[in-house]
Specification:
By secondary structure, this protein is an alpha+beta fold. Helix content is 18%, strand content 27%. It has two domains: 211 residues, Collagenase (Catalytic Domain); 117 residues, no CATH class. The chain starts with a helix and ends with a strand.
Length: 392
């Protein structure tokens, strides 16, 4: 590249980087960056690849990286499979009809991949333990280095096929931590937003820096979801809940019955139960969102069940917390192109729910919301307060 050509290249790349930095998704956020080129804030989280053609990628592993190249390549293949399984479970990947779009006119997310030689000019290049000029320039314009980066060079609104990089430095000797960081960056390529699920924690680098194999969360490294931070609740699923206060003397996942409002204690009064567990279970979501809150002792013996009915609240102007693409589309043939956000999920996700639980003849107002996991709030009228419990 000539000196003049190098100058033009750097100016163009700096423009892309500055666009990316204007959006929260382009900031380090104590962890995996998502430096997605494009001049619109919403474009930063666009799915990188649409259509039936497989994602063509190659892998470069630097000398001295703590894992052999063959192990890294298998780790990347496993990462693609892990995301495929996740999307299949939640019916993610097909254009949604939730906002009145005609899905036949929109391509599906690309969920298949194929490794090729780097000389074959793939769309996606993994730089593991080494970098290139573009990666170094992007990192130099950010405040600090993270443990990973998904850098899209620009966004092609015609083909919806992008050129980009995934960069992972040699930040750890622990293969599980490296795999978790890879899975995080792959999530950005598939349009997953920060804080939608465990692996997409915006503070992932801080977590990986502090976590040890003695911590309970260590078992979930290399997985998309954790028991305490699932993506959503499907019909028939349940989530363990706890108040924020921890109770000495109770086993993991249980807490003192004293943290449960008296209104929800087992009826009729039973012998003293020092520690209890709570699980929220979703029973239906078609015509009504029906839930039940199950209380057991710490050994799993049933104590109490209360039932509730909820409805979805208006989502407001926020974009859905599912993968999607904001681009120019022709929703109906022979009509002008228009900017449309296309979500890639067949059901609503992360919607706030409002309703009530019934105990005896009394209805207790309640709401369910998602923020780094699930939160359940139940209003206790005689105490004029909200009882708040979270997924754990």
């Amino acid at each position: 590249m000539t000196a003049a050509g190098r100058c033009v290249f750097l100016v163009m790349l700096m423009c892309e980087v500055l666009y990316a930095r204007a959006a929260p998704a382009g900031k380090p956020d104590s962890g995996g960056w998502s430096g997605n080129g494009g001049g619109l804030y919403q474009v930063n989280d666009n799915v990188w690849y649409l259509g039936s053609e497989a994602i063509r990628y190659c892998v470069r592993v630097g000398e001295g990286f703590p894992l052999p190249a063959a192990d890294v390549e298998e780790m990347i293949r496993r990462g693609f499979r892990t995301w495929q399984q996740f999307f299949s479970r939640y019916q993610i990947g097909s254009p949604s009809t939730l906002n009145g779009l005609l899905p036949g006119y929109f391509p599906h997310m690309t969920l298949v991949s194929r490794e090729v030689a780097c000389a074959d000019k793939p769309e996606l290049e993994f730089y593991i333990g080494l970098d290139n000029e573009e990666l170094r320039l992007y990192r130099s314009l950010n405040e600090s280095d993270g443990y990973g980066l998904a850098l899209r060079r620009s966004y092609d609104h015609a083909r919806h096929r992008q050129q980009g990089y995934v960069w992972i430095p040699a930040f750890s000797q622990d293969a599980r931590k490296i795999e978790h960081m890879l899975l995080h960056e792959l999530g950005h390529i598939f349009g997953m937003k920060h804080d939608t699920v465990f692996v997409m924690d915006r503070h992932v680098a801080l977590t990986l820096k502090k976590i040890t194999n003695a911590d309970a969360a260590y078992a979930f490294l290399g997985k998309v979801e954790a028991d305490f931070w699932p993506f959503d609740m499907m019909t028939g699923s349940q989530i363990a809940l706890m108040p924020e206060a921890q109770t000495p003397g109770c086993s993991t996942g249980s807490f003192s019955l004293g943290y449960v409002p008296y209104n929800f204690h087992p009826r009729p009064p039973m012998r003293l139960v020092p520690c209890a567990r709570l699980h929220l279970q979703r029973n239906s979501e078609a015509l009504a969102n029906n839930f039940q809150l199950n209380m057991t002792n710490e050994n799993g013996q049933w104590l109490q069940t209360i039932f509730g009915t909820f409805q979805m609240l208006e989502a407001g102007d926020d974009l859905p917390m599912v993968p999607g693409t904001l681009s120019t589309w022709q929703n109906v043939p022979r009509t002008p192109m228009q900017w449309v956000f296309v979500p890639y999920a067949l059901r609503n996700m992360h919607t706030q729910l409002s309703g009530y639980f019934i105990v005896g003849m009394i209805r207790y107002p309640a709401r369910i919301s998602w923020k780094r996991g699930l939160s359940l709030e139940i209003f206790i009228p005689d105490q004029a307060r909200w009882w708040v419990i979270h997924s754990v």
